[in-house]
Amino acid sequence: MKLRAPLPLAALMLAGIGGCASPPTAPGATAPDSTAVSDLCYRKVTTAPASISGTDTIPGTTDSLIVRLHITGDHVTGEMSRLPGERDRMTGTLVGTLQGSRIVAVYRYTAEGLTAKEEKIMRISADGLHLKNGELEEREGIWTLKDTATAYTEVVPLVPCR
Question: Which pTM was predicted?
Answer without folding.
Answer: 0.70
